[in-house]
Amino acid sequence: MSHGSAVGTEPTAPSRIGSAPTRPSPFTLPRWAPGAMGLLVVLVVWWVVGAANLVGRGAGGNVSAVPTPPEVLQQLVTDGFSFYWRNASVTLAEAGIGFAVGNALAVATAGLVLLAPWLERLATQLAVITYCLPLIAIGPVIFAVAGPPISGEPSMTAAVLAGLSVYFVTVVTTIQGLKAADPSGLDVIAVAGGNRFHQLVKVQLITAVPYIFTALKIAAPASVLGAILGEFVGGVDRGLGPAMVSAQETLNVDRLWALALVAVLVAGAAYAVIALAGRLATPWAGKES
Length: 289
Description:
By secondary structure, this protein is an all-alpha fold.
C-alpha cells in the first residue's frame, strides 16, 4: 500500500529561500584586463617584428622599417616634449574646432528631424554623403576655398575634415537617442499643452544625452584622424601631419613611429576624456554610458 505518494513522482526540490548568494567565479577577469592583454600582445608582436628585422627597406633590407619600442622611446626622449607638443597642439586645435562645430551641427540636425519629421530622409542622406566622401580627395578642394593658414596657426582645411569625420555618427546616434524617449513622458507634455519643441527639450533630449556621449566618444579620435589627414593638404608648417611628412622625407623612421605613437596617444586621450565626461554627466545611465 502506498503511503499517500504517487508512484513515479519526483521528489520536490528543496526551497532556495534563504540560500547563500552565488559567489562570483574566482577566475573572472576585471573589465580592464582584456584591453591590457590585447595591448600587451600588440607590444610583443611589434617588438619581435622590429628586433627580427622582418620588415626592411633599402639595399638588401638591412635597415628595419619597424623600430623596436625602446628605439621609439629613445627618439621621444631625444626630440623632447617641446617638439611633440609644438606639433600636437596645432593638430589638437584643428581637431577641437572640427569636433565642436561638426557635433553641434549634427545634434542640431537631429533636433530638426524631431521637430519636422519630413526632414529625416534628407538629413540621413546628407549624413551618409559626408560619411562616404573620401576626405583625402576633397581636401585640396576645401584648401582651394579656405586658403592657406597663417604660419603656425591651425588649418581651416584640417578643421573642416575633422568636422566631416564626426558628423555622420553623431547625427545617426542622436536621432536614435531622441526616438528612444518614453512615449508616456511625451504624452504628459502633450496633455499639459506642450508642443513638439517642449517634448524635445523636456523629454527627448534628456533621454538622448547618453546616446550623444556615446557618439562623442567615437567622434573624438575620429576628429584627430580627420585633422591629421587635412594637414597633409592644408598648407600648415606645424602639426603631426607635416611632422610625419618631414620624417618620411628624411628617412627618420624612429621619429616617424614616435609621431604615430603620439597621434595614437592623443586620440586615445580624447576618447578617455569624453568617456569620463559622459560618465559624470549621465550617472543614471550606469556603466553603459
